[in-house]
Design goal:
The structure is a homodimer of 224-residue chains.
Chain A (H helix, E strand, L loop, with lengths): L3 E4 L4 H14 L4 E7 L6 H13 L3 E5 L2 H5 L29 H13 L6 E3 L15 H15 L4 E3 L7 H10 L3 H4 L17 H13 L4 H4 L4
Helix pairs in contact in A: 1-2, 1-6, 4-5, 6-8
Amino acid sequence: MSQALVVLSGGQDSTTCLYWALQRFGVGQIEAVTFDYGQRHRRELDCAARVAARAGAPQTVLPINTFAALGGNALIDAGIPVQDGVNAQTRLPNTFVPGRNLIFLTFAAAFAYPRGIRHLVTGVAQTDYSGYPDCRQATLQTLEQALRLGMEYEITIHAPLMFKSKADTVRLASELGALPALADTHTCYNGVYPPCGECPSCQLRARGFAEAGLVDPLLALNVV
Amino acid sequence: MSQALVVLSGGQDSTTCLYWALQRFGVGQIEAVTFDYGQRHRRELDCAARVAARAGAPQTVLPINTFAALGGNALIDAGIPVQDGVNAQTRLPNTFVPGRNLIFLTFAAAFAYPRGIRHLVTGVAQTDYSGYPDCRQATLQTLEQALRLGMEYEITIHAPLMFKSKADTVRLASELGALPALADTHTCYNGVYPPCGECPSCQLRARGFAEAGLVDPLLALNVV
């Protein structure tokens, strides 16, 4: 029986969290869940599988077809450009899927429950949250309480990157020996490989590595 | 723009809530969302559509394929008998889908958000909750707070049946003029029509009507 379940997207942050969980809970004590929610960049799913395999963590992919049915979001709907700015009503980026992390963590808890897993680990961060309110500490604390009440089950949500800058996250990855795994991750909002280097997501990642004084293994591999 | 969104399952309680919402928010001010989550009794979806149409409420059916992928539950998995008692680990009925109402309400909120709908209505009740912790008042209050924080959006969850017995719910349906609509609803856990009359769900419904001194229109229609 595993102790912890990591919500693994195939990105830099959740990959770093997978290694954080390996160190915290021990080899053989963690597994990963990845959501196939119709993300426009299917490459993320391949990245998540490779990251989990490299770390020796059993991985389960759970489908969620509901976000695509809700529609209207640039992360899912290929007809909506990512960099079209913010939603006029909400003033949030058009990559905001309302409640996405609430749904991910609730399904993760539903997966953990029959398996007796008491710890969920997520890579969300308040520091670089880009306006996403479901990535904030207060949201996660309240959701944790809702999950405990709603499932009558003592479960804890860990968000080890919550207050870290991207540079600190890179440093943590380095300390945890997770840098090689970051070569398998996916960050670019435009879904291209090698990464476009120009979208906000690529730029945020690049600044993090630059400030930490480390080379991004994803880019290092792509030097021709 | 509607004011309220009713989570409509096609059952007695959510149908009563639809009429509660009609009275509270007014004709033309409500709509319904129904989740197609792989319920083994597809008849529920037909019931929900008929109930919504009769009430003149626009209905959206949203798919959720995740519960079926999680597996191991009698309400979804046709291979598991409903009346096999309780789960050995959790001591909850094997019809308990961990976090089901948390997921339903979170997706309902995600649907409501871009539409500017500020009120969610659910038919869950603490009184007859059959051991389901996600039907309790404390759970809904905490979830409401998580939704408000996680979407940065003032939304209110209404559960008008929360502390009502089944008999009181029947009386409320009568007062609201919802009794005819109850002929279109579905209750039986065994999914048969006319209802089996023997499963816990049929018996609970029958006791409610008996205590309220009213005839269940679902059964009245089935007198041969």
